[in-house]
């Protein structure tokens, strides 16, 4: 619909067929590019040039990420995301909410039906590869590839642990309203996919296609101080446009009772609590 509107507009102004053809070009280019990329080639090439990190030696290794998407989404909960900025500043947050995008038949996935573009290419790279995309033309979302062609886990929320002052500064950048300059509560710094990217200075230009098992700018490690938590399973957020079948699938996971979760499902929480009570 967007491209059709653009073509109609150009016709009404210029009446020129060449202008219409120019508007159609980007669509044709994307389709051609998709056909040129091969999933197996992308996967194999992503293993080339593996380097040894110079910091973050307690990071999680390849075997942690090389599991099916749904398993990785659950495994990541309670782990600590570490971001090392260019000036040497460290920012840390506990992962408390994830969503998995399965690829293949998952209509909500950027790799639905095996589609491959330059944007979605990291979803086909080795497990543990960072996939950052931009939504609404301005917000970043941070994903991690898993086992399975085109599968990746979206990080939806973090619990801030270290570097909160830096997170506050990152969130305040570009906020023009005086009322928006007030200090945010800790649980509001990273309680959403775009918020955590802003707080952790995660952008497509700086982080996309990096390997969490080797890159010195970011990694994930165990959290020795956290206690085991119950995991709530719910539907994914903001994908109603793909239809009820896939919008309602239980592919979002979060830690029960954590205040940094972006959106609670009280019905599922009650079901989980009932199950826990009956298990004793």
TrEMBL record:
Subunit structure: Binds MBD1. Binds SSBP1.
Catalytic reaction equation(s): Hydrolysis of alkylated DNA, releasing 3-methyladenine, 3-methylguanine, 7-methylguanine and 7-methyladenine
InterPro entries: Formyl_transferase-like_C_sf (IPR011034), MPG (IPR003180), MPG_sf (IPR036995)
Annotated family: Belongs to the DNA glycosylase MPG family.
EC number: 3.2.2.21
UniProt KW keywords: DNA damage, DNA repair, Hydrolase
GO MF term set: alkylbase DNA N-glycosylase activity; DNA binding
Keyword DNA damage: yes
Source species of the chain: Cryptotermes secundus
Any matching Pfam family: Pur_DNA_glyco
HAMAP family linked to this entry: 3MGH
GO BP terms: base-excision repair
Protein name per UniProt: DNA-3-methyladenine glycosylase
UniProt function note: Hydrolysis of the deoxyribose N-glycosidic bond to excise 3-methyladenine, and 7-methylguanine from the damaged DNA polymer formed by alkylation lesions.
